[in-house]
Design brief:
By secondary structure, the chain is an alpha+beta fold. The chain contains ten helices and 13 strands. A five-stranded antiparallel sheet has the order 2-1-5-4-3, with helices on both faces. Strands 7-9-10-12-11 form a five-stranded mixed sheet.
Length: about 500
């Protein structure tokens, strides 16, 4: 079985994993880029808030020039003037709001001149009052600018307090800016990047999934077409799959199938002609010997005045004519094998009938015939043809068995196959003739025609099976082996459901 690493599906899955890995790396880089961009925005906001706070301090110092005495809690008129100071100071700092805070009275001025709302913003942000109070107290206590940062999910709040020098006692300036991390260019780039990444990963996943599904279905269809049985074992004609690359392979396979069919046809013709030539040579050889004997005896009988010699010549002529008749009958059986008509056949009864038919011949040669076993079901066979094949195999076994030998008949079922065996204890099949054992006119006996096993082969082929020389069965304990033996096995299909034999009466 080929390794999964060398399959197309494995390569596509590896590509998908690499795509996921690259997507994860890209997402990580996007997040890092966004984080760094947000940090830069916060740093810029802190710088701008610090500048705005100094700007308020400068404006306040200019505003208080020439004052004498000190003020602890500004009145409303002074608060309006201080608000103008803050507005002027923050006008050049977009997004920054701020004011002036006193330790005694709290907020003395507030302004947000760049507020993008529907109108000017004049009220302090209530949610940040505590932060503003704390940062101003720290700046007043430390007598230097103090900054703080408060981070939430959607924004970062930057606040700075600066101590003021002037006629108002305990006064500090404060500025504040909001950095929205879910807005701005970096956030838009992050969303755009993630959107593009999601679209490409999802699209790639869909394309790869569809490719795997389509390839799997098309290849399974090709496997099904290639697995169909065709006449004479030729390659089936494959249909187009709709995929250009696979269709090129289909076209190549169809072209190879056409060439293979043509080559098989040519080989079959050559084999048929060779078989015809071999058959003709065998027939000529088999006919020439009886004719030569008939001619010799007839010439001797004509030349001799002895009537007994003429009688003996006529007897020999009749024997040779009978031999020629048997030869022609076997040839007709070999060349005109009819199509089998399978019917439920009791294989055990068939084996016993065959053994009984040849029992006299076997006894005359000192050979014993034993039927060992057979399947209890009825096998779908052409009984007449299988009987003829068994006759040839049993006769062959008897003729090759020595006196005291045993011919064994058996049968068994293995799934959708039935195997019938005929085994003898003779000298075995010579190695020189094993490769041509089932060809016509191949025989190891001087009085044989060499057509018996060829007829068995044709009957087996007509049933869709085969006959072969199998390994001899192991000798049973207590039996004397008289030779290596030979076992011929008929291997036939059993496609129909088993039909139980009727109970014996």
């Amino acid at each position: 079985m080929p390794s999964r690493l060398h399959s197309l599906r494995a390569h596509l899955l590896a590509l998908w994993i690499l795509l996921l890995a690259s997507a994860a790396a890209t997402a990580y880089l996007l997040v890092e880029f966004y984080t760094q961009s947000a940090a830069v925005q916060v740093a810029q906001a802190e710088l701008q808030v610090a500048r705005a706070c100094r700007e308020i301090g400068d404006r306040f110092a200019f505003f208080g020039t020439g004052w004498s005495g000190g003020v602890t809690d500004p009145d409303d008129t002074l608060k309006r003037q201080l608000t103008d100071v803050v507005v002027t100071a923050l006008a050049a700092h977009p997004g920054v709001e701020g004011g002036i805070w006193t330790a005694a009275g709290g907020a003395a001025a507030y302004a947000f001149p760049t507020y993008e709302g529907t109108g000017p913003k004049t009220d302090l942000p209530s949610a940040e009052i505590d932060t503003i109070r704390r940062i101003n107290a720290e700046a007043l206590s430390a007598e230097r600018p103090v900054a703080t940062r408060r981070v939430s999910q959607t924004q970062t709040l930057v606040v700075q307090g600066c101590p003021l020098r002037g006629p108002i006692q305990g006064a500090t300036a404060w500025t504040m800016a909001r950095v929205h991390t879910d807005q701005g260019r970096a956030y838009g780039q992050l969303l755009a990047g993630f959107g593009f990444l999601a679209a490409t990963v999802l699209g790639s996943a869909l394309l790869l999934g569809r490719l795997l599904l389509v390839l799997g279905r098309r290849i399974a269809r090709l496997e099904g077409q290639l697995g169909r049985e065709t006449e004479e074992g030729e390659l089936p004609r494959l249909r187009a799959t709709g995929l250009r690359e696979l269709d090129r392979l289909v076209e190549a396979l169809n072209a190879a199938g056409t060439r293979l069919a043509a080559a098989r046809h040519r080989a079959a013709e050559a084999e048929r002609l060779a078989a015809v030539g071999q058959l003709a040579a065998g027939i000529a050889h088999e006919i020439r010997n009886p004719l030569a004997a008939i001619r010799l005896k007839a010439e001797n009988a004509l030349a001799s005045p002895d009537p007994a010699r003429a009688r003996a010549a006529l007897d020999l002529v009749l024997d040779q004519v009978a031999r020629l008749d048997r030869l022609l009958r076997d040839l007709l059986s070999l060349t005109q094998t009819r199509r089998p008509t399978p019917a439920p056949t009791d294989l055990g009864r068939l084996l016993h009938d065959c053994a009984h038919l040849h029992d006299d011949l076997a006894r005359a040669q000192g050979v014993r015939i034993v039927v060992e076993e057979a399947p209890p079901e009825r096998a779908p066979l052409d009984e007449a043809q299988i009987r003829r094949a068994l006759d040839n195999l049993v006769l062959n076994a008897i003729q090759h068995s020595p006196a005291g030998g045993t011919v064994r008949l058996s049968g068994d079922r293995d799934g959708e196959r039935v195997r019938i065996r005929v085994a003898d204890e003779g000298p075995g099949v010579p190695e020189a003739v094993r490769s041509r054992l089932f060809e016509p006119f191949i025989t190891g006996r001087p009085d044989g025609t060499g057509l018996g096993l060829a007829i068995v082969r044709e009957i087996a082929r007509a049933h869709g099976g085969q006959v072969r020389l199998a390994a001899p069965p192991p000798r049973r304990t207590g039996t004397e082996a008289t030779g290596p033996g030979a076992t011929f096995e008929l291997d036939l299909p059993w496609p129909a459901p088993a039909i139980p034999c009727p109970p014996a009466s």
